[in-house]
Amino acid sequence: MEPMEQMELMGNIPNRIRSQVLIDALPYIQRYNQKIIVVKYGGNAMTNEALKEAVMSDIVLLSLVGIRVVLVHGGGPEISDMLHRLNIESRFVGGLRYTDAETAEVVRMVLAGKVNKELVSHLTRHQGKALGLCGIDGELLRATKKESKPDVGLVGEITDVNTKPILMALDNGYIPVIATVACGADGQVYNVNADTAAAAIAAALGAENLILMTDIAGLLRDKNDPATLIPSVSISEVQNLKKQGIISGGMIPKIDCCVEAIRRGVKKAVIIDGRVPHSILVEICSNEGVGTQFLSVY
Fold first, then answer.
1. What is the pLDDT of residues 170-214, one digit of tens each?
2. pLDDT (tens digit, 9 = 90+) per residue, 48-96?
3. Is 202 exposed, middle or buried (CB count within 10 Å of its CB: 0-12, 13-18, 19+)?
4. Residue 66 catalytic?
5. Catalytic residue at 40?
6. CA dihedral 264, 266, 268, 271 (to 10 degrees)
7. Among the options 58, 137, 195, 273, which is catalytic?
């Protein structure tokens, strides 16, 4: 079933069932009240308009019931599209966008100037209070050049997160929307992977939960069989799962971000399926969740 069809079916749910859903959600709302949740927004949920509207409404709802939501976003497809329009080559090295000085300007323009403000506008349209920020504002994200072979250009590794601008927004009832560009000590602007940035921000804030939205069901024992979803993983198991080849490819950096966040004090990190409408609400307001959660122990 397509996401739009699923959302249309929700309009036919009887009122008694809707009421029960709200009652069942109450303990989870109480648990997360005034706690910080960091959501990394990306994948199909960012490009599919129906899913985007679902995500925006989820975030506004959580904010209105007293959960302090921080939205961190990338914007890879939009960056690639703008580079194509400007006849600038897109190159990827080891899964990271090679970022020369010209590309860095486009990254800053697209992430901080276009995608960030569009998300703020979407949240505002859903009656939310949102404030757009990027890592350069108030030196929110400080970074140094990522050293790698082969070289990836002006890709940054976060060295420090200044939580003051984020907490100021939260304390005044705003949803911080953070674009993942960072500044160096010399003023150089760096392109930072959004998953990495979200994990660092969650750790610095002592977040209750880090949610990474993806285009897959979660961690699968068999990557070709969604029925083999692993719902919960202790971070002590991760290395063994890598050796078995269960954690491989593009899942490695995402799961490494989850592990790092847990080690630095985040209570729970979860990779959820952003293709499922209202997956954020399902994750927060149920025991089952909708993906794979990573915990220090379980």
1. 999 999 999 999 999 888 999 999 999 999 999 999 999 999 998
2. 888 899 999 999 999 999 999 999 998 888 999 999 999 998 888 877 8
3. buried
4. no
5. yes
6. -80
7. 195
Residue indicated by tokens 């954690």: 247
Other beta carbons less than 10 A from residue 215's beta carbon: 14
Residue 249 to residue 242: CA distance in whole angstroms: 10
Distance between CA atoms of residues 32 and 8, nearest Å = 29
Cα(81)–Cα(83) distance, integer angstroms: 6
Q: Is 294 exposed, middle or buried (0-12, 13-18, 19+ CB in 10 A)?
A: buried
43 is catalytic: yes
Q: Which of 76, 218, 274, 289 is catalytic?
A: 76
**Tokens standing for 44?**
């199909």
Categorise residue 213: left if φ over 0, alpha if ψ from -120 to 50, beta otherwise. beta
Q: How far is CA 159 from CA 38, 105, 209, 243, in A?
A: 19, 21, 21, 29
Reported as a single tens digit per residue, the pLDDT across 35-59 is 999 999 987 778 888 889 999 999 9
- In the residue annotation, 75 being an active-site residue is answered as no
Contacts of 213 (CB under 8 A, 6+ apart): 39, 40, 41, 42, 43, 45, 55, 272, 274, 279, 280
Query: What would the two tokens of residue 193 be?
Result: 């992977």
- Indicate the pTM of the whole model: 0.90
| Identified catalytic residue from 42, 58, 74, 254 | 254
Per-residue burial over 26-55, b = 16 or more CB atoms within 10 Å of its CB, e = otherwise:
eebbeebeeebbbbbbbbbbbebeebbebb
Q: Is 195 one of the annotated active-site residues of the chain?
A: yes
Distances (CA, A) of 202 to 62, 70, 157, 194, 257: 17, 9, 16, 12, 10
CA dihedral 227, 233, 238, 241 (to 10 degrees): -30
The first and second tokens of residue 196, run together, are 């990495």
The pair of three-digit structure tokens given for residue 85, joined into one six-digit string: 């329009």
